[in-house]
Amino acid sequence: MAPWDGAVNKIFGIVTNGRDMLTTGNQLRAARSLVALDQVTLATSSGVSANTIRLMEAKGAETLTSGLDTIKRVQGALEAAGVEFLNHGQPGVRLAKKAD
Questions:
Q1: Which of 6, 27, 55, 83 would disulfide-bridge 91, Cβ 3.0–4.6 Å?
Q2: Residue 50: exposed, middle, or buried by beta-carbon count in 10 A (0-12, 13-18, 19+)?
Q3: Is pLDDT at 88 greater than 80 in this prediction?
């Protein structure tokens, strides 16, 4: 268990209940690429506009400034597609382990 599991997320000031959060545009782009989703498909599945996805990714290595609800929607859609978010010192992504 990571030391911040269940702790207050320092970037957003919310309780994450052990989940690592989507935090940068580069992390979003990597997550999308990992599961072969284009921006329009991700936008549709997360309920946001394709322009929102494009603007989020344009932040690059900077912290996302989109609203928390938007970030949660995008993260939820990517997690449903099989992405696991990692923030162990640096934002990252990997394919989630399949349930047995």
A1: 27
A2: middle
A3: no
